[in-house]
Design a protein that fits this description.
Alpha-Beta Plaits, 8 strands, flat, three-stranded mixed β-sheet, Ribosomal Protein S8, Chain: A, domain 1, single chain, mainly alpha, about 525 residues
Length: about 525
């Protein structure tokens, strides 16, 4: 076989092998394709089945949710319907009530209208009868007047004048009785009102109740200082007494000397002088005179400041400087043991309160009360009473006439020029008469308190007795093992009855009996 034939054979064999291979590959691919298609169809079937199942589930859930919402909507609708039905029923009830009320009101109105018509008719008839009666009365009056004129031989004018005189006499008598009754009521009311005003003023006053003394005590650093104050042959003590006008008492009292004088100003000058001499250590007649002069000069400033402070406290800002200076000197002036500046301040406070309560001139009352005793600052140096000296001094320094008149009347030397003057006198009496204000009043006051406590202590079962509230109350503490609760009532009555019989006192005294039981034990 030639080469060409061999090539063709070879080519044919190769071609046959390729076809066979191609056919096998195609057959293989077809089988694979069929398998893939079968799996895809199976997967599609499964997916379709799952989708149908899921769709059915979603449909059922949607149907259930729709049913629930429908049920909820139906329930809400029914609730709203019931509420609207209740509102409608309430409105219908209210409308029915208003309808009935309106019907009742219409019925009442109709009844009132009928009554008014009947009253109008009766009034018209009464007016007719009244008019007829008035005509008859006028005619009767005319007839009576004619008869009276005939019988009394008086004209109408004369009778009218006689009648008016009689009416006037009756009116005057009634007015006099009314005035008498009103005056009695006014006196009673005024007394009660005055008590209220005075009580309120006293309660709002917080003045001190301590009296002044006539001696002062100077403390010494040692008893050796007494010899230096006395000096050689007594020349230092004589110089002190001559310069100050105060008597020095050097006795056995340890660490102190006593200054005796009725003039508190001199005592204060002497006290400050001795204290400065002791601090300085130089004590001889020339030094004593020098220190006394210096202390007196400083005391002038002190009294001026005291007067200014007192006036400022009372709201008196326009007083003359000389008046303030003289008022400051009253700090070192006493009357029956009572400090006059404190007394003047207290009187001004009381007078201001009472004047304000009564609607009077508060400024005039306060000013006059503050200045009423200013003459006591100079009555030891000049001739005349403190009232005359004070009025001359105040008039010289420009005080007004209402203030001067109130000051002049505070001891009732003249008739009352004004109500403010009466208030000043009342406040002065209150300040001077209160317990503890003045020496002789204090002594009787203390005796009354002691007597009050002694009466209570004299009863059996009383442990302690205390007089309180300036003697207006006494509190008694009893022994609980000797006095029972029931016996405390009778004890208070017995003590009150005995106080009434044995003591003289203003107002009333409250008796309080206190009984207590105590149980004491110790924990060990």
């Amino acid at each position: 076989m030639g080469p060409g034939a061999a090539y063709l054979v070879t080519a044919g064999i190769a071609t046959g092998g390729g076809v066979t291979t191609l056919a096998w590959w195609l057959a293989t691919r077809r089988g694979a394709a069929r398998d893939i298609i079968a799996r895809a169809e199976e997967h599609a079937r499964i997916t379709r089945t799952q989708a149908e199942r899921d769709a059915e589930t979603v449909r059922k859930e949607a149907l259930l949710e729709g049913r629930e919402k429908a049920h909820e909507l139906m329930t809400r609708t029914e609730q709203q319907a019931r509420e609207r039905q209740q509102e409608i029923v309430a409105l219908e009830q209210a409308l029915a009530d208003k309808t009935r009320a309106l019907a009742d009101r219409i019925a009442v109105t109709d009844s009132l209208e009928r009554d008014l018509r009947a009253r109008d008719a009766a009034l018209a008839e009464a007016q007719k009868r009244a008019a007829a009666a008035a005509l008859r009365a006028e005619q009767l009056v005319v007839d009576r007047q004619r008869e009276l004129q005939r019988v009394a031989s008086l004209t109408a004018e004369e009778a009218r004048e006689l009648l008016l005189k009689q009416i006037e006499a009756d009116a005057r008598r009634d007015a006099a009785n009314l005035v008498k009754r009103l005056e009695a009521e006014a006196r009673e009311t005024a007394a009660i009102r005055a008590q209220q005003i005075i009580t309120d003023a006293i309660q709002r006053s917080a003045a001190e109740h301590a009296i002044e003394t006539t001696v002062s005590v100077v403390d010494l650093p040692s008893d050796d200082m007494k010899g230096r104050i006395i000096g050689r042959e007594g020349r230092n003590i004589r110089a002190l007494e001559t310069a100050t006008g105060v008597e020095l008492i050097v006795d056995d009292t340890p660490g102190a000397i006593i200054l005796s004088s009725f003039d508190p100003f001199r005592r204060e000058v002497a006290r400050q002088t001795i204290e400065r001499l002791i601090a300085d250590g130089r004590i001889h007649p020339a030094r004593i005179e020098e220190v006394v002069d210096k202390v007196k000069g400083e005391m002038e400033d002190t009294v001026r400041r005291e007067g200014e402070a007192a006036a400022f406290e009372l709201g008196l800002y326009d007083l003359h400087p000389e008046i303030l200076k003289l008022m400051g000197r009253l700090k070192f002036r006493t009357s029956y043991g009572q400090n006059v500046l404190n007394h003047s301040r207290e009187v001004a406070f009381l007078a201001g309160i009472m004047a304000k309560e009564m609607g009077l001139n508060t400024h005039v009352a306060t000013r006059a009360a503050f200045l009423h005793d200013i003459g006591k600052a100079i009555d030891r140096d000049l001739q005349g009473t403190h009232l005359e000296l004070g009025l001359d001094f105040l008039r010289k320094h420009g005080e007004t006439e209402p203030v001067l008149q109130a000051v002049a009347a505070h001891h009732m030397d003249i008739d009352w020029p004004s109500l403010e003057a009466m208030i000043v006198q009342a406040a002065d009496a209150i300040s001077a008469a209160r317990p503890g204000a003045r020496r002789e009043i204090l002594e009787s006051y203390v005796k009354r308190l002691e007597k009050l406590e002694n009466i209570a202590d004299s009863f059996q079962g009383v442990s302690k007795a205390f007089a309180l509230q300036a003697g207006r109350e006494i509190r008694i503490v009893v022994e609980s093992d000797r006095v029972s609760d029931e016996e405390t009532v009778w004890l208070s009555k017995d003590i009150a009855r005995r106080i009434e019989n044995e003591l003289e006192y203003p107002g009333q005294i409250k008796v309080t009996v206190i009984r207590e039981t105590r149980a004491v034990e110790f924990a060990r």
